[in-house]
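Work Package 4 report. The design task specified in the project plan requires that, given a folded chain encoded as structure tokens, an amino acid be chosen for each position. We show below one input record used in the internal validation round.
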């Protein structure tokens, strides 16, 4: 586990990485290319310099790397190996499969991680390698469009991909499987078995109490719901919610819970905003939220190995201000309180509570004497 030296807000920290660590050079290279930080190798440490957010991401990456104790070497064809000479593609496979990949020329990949995750990646790698070795075929424009969409979702420069037609076909087949939705292996409803046991009916008194309780819950639910046209746009601080749910680790499930909370209240205009460079962490969950119109990305791109990202906090506040929406976040947004058009949005934001697998906003988000949650969410 890495031991960090330096204050949390500093722009330079040192992390313990023994010089004897295998794949140490690859680790340093990954840090530079994945997070846009500068890295200096010391005796048994590495010094990382850069923005606070990127340093935090880099430190977490090092800690995960040092925890990996299972490693295998995999030989692949030259065509397949060319895929892993592009850091954007390496980053995609690492994030999707939860492994560390170190390309060792001319045609070997060192793969580290939990045994089950390494095996899962190697299975996908075997298919990818086999597809790369098949004879070249002419690809239709729609196939290239599939690859282009994959690159866009994974922050990969489409125009820098290997030029080999066989590699293009292998990537297309990989993308097709990645975006396909598996069909259920059996019908969603099955007939009850002949020996099924049925519970006896509850007594009349119990039944009436159950119905009474359901009635109360139904009334509360209906009172919370309003005509969607009269409800304000809800803008969720995706990173804030995801880190809160994951206990300081980015977990996209928190964003899904937040969206569902407001949908159950009758909202149709609910959006979460996260930086583009975190897109791969959301996987198929982010893909679904994006398709449903509940997830948007603030601009982010890699330029010469440096991560350039717009401030997602500013994007969130600007969207809410322009659309007369309300922000859901536990962030104080102190950096923007001096901007008049954003001050009201910040002061009227809705703090949330995350307990285990539950997300909710209290009925009195601004205190006992303030407006209720329903009032905060309704258009004036």
């Amino acid at each position: 586990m890495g031991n960090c030296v330096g204050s949390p807000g500093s722009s330079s920290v040192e992390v313990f990485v023994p010089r004897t660590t295998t794949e140490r050079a690859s680790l340093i290279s990954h840090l530079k290319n994945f997070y846009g930080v500068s890295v200096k190798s010391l005796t048994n440490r590495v010094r990382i310099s850069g923005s606070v957010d990127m340093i935090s991401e880099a430190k977490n990456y090092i800690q995960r790397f040092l925890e990996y104790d299972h490693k295998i070497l995999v030989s692949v064809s030259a065509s397949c190996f060319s895929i892993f000479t592009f850091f954007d593609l390496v980053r995609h496979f690492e994030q999707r499969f939860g492994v560390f990949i170190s390309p060792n020329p001319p045609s070997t990949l060192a793969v580290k991680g939990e045994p089950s995750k390494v095996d899962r990646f190697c299975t996908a790698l075997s298919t990818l390698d086999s597809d790369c070795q098949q004879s070249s075929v002419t690809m239709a424009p729609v196939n290239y469009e599939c690859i282009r969409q994959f690159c866009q979702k994974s922050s990969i420069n489409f125009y820098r991909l290997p030029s080999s037609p066989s590699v293009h076909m292998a990537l297309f087949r990989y993308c097709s499987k990645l975006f396909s939705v598996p069909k259920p292996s059996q019908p969603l409803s099955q007939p009850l078995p002949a020996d099924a046991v049925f519970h006896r009916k509850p007594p009349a008194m119990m039944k009436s109490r159950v119905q009474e309780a359901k009635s109360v819950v139904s009334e509360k639910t209906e009172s919370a719901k309003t005509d969607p046209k009269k409800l304000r746009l809800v803008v969720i601080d995706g990173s804030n919610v995801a880190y809160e749910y994951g206990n300081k680790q980015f977990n996209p499930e928190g964003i899904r819970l937040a969206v569902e909370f407001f949908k159950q209240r009758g909202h149709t205009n609910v959006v979460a905003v996260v930086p583009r460079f975190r897109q791969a962490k959301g996987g198929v969950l982010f893909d679904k939220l994006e398709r449903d119109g509940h997830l948007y990305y603030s601009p982010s791109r890699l330029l010469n190995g440096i991560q350039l990202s717009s401030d997602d906090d500013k994007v969130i506040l600007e969207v809410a201000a322009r659309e007369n929406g309300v922000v859901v976040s536990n962030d104080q947004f102190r950096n923007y309180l001096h901007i008049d058009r954003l001050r009201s949005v910040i002061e009227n934001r809705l703090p949330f509570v995350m307990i285990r697998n539950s997300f909710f906003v209290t009925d009195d988000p601004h205190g006992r004497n303030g407006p209720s949650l329903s009032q905060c969410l309704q258009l004036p």
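The two ends are 52 Å apart (CA to CA). Validation will be extended to a larger panel in the next phase.
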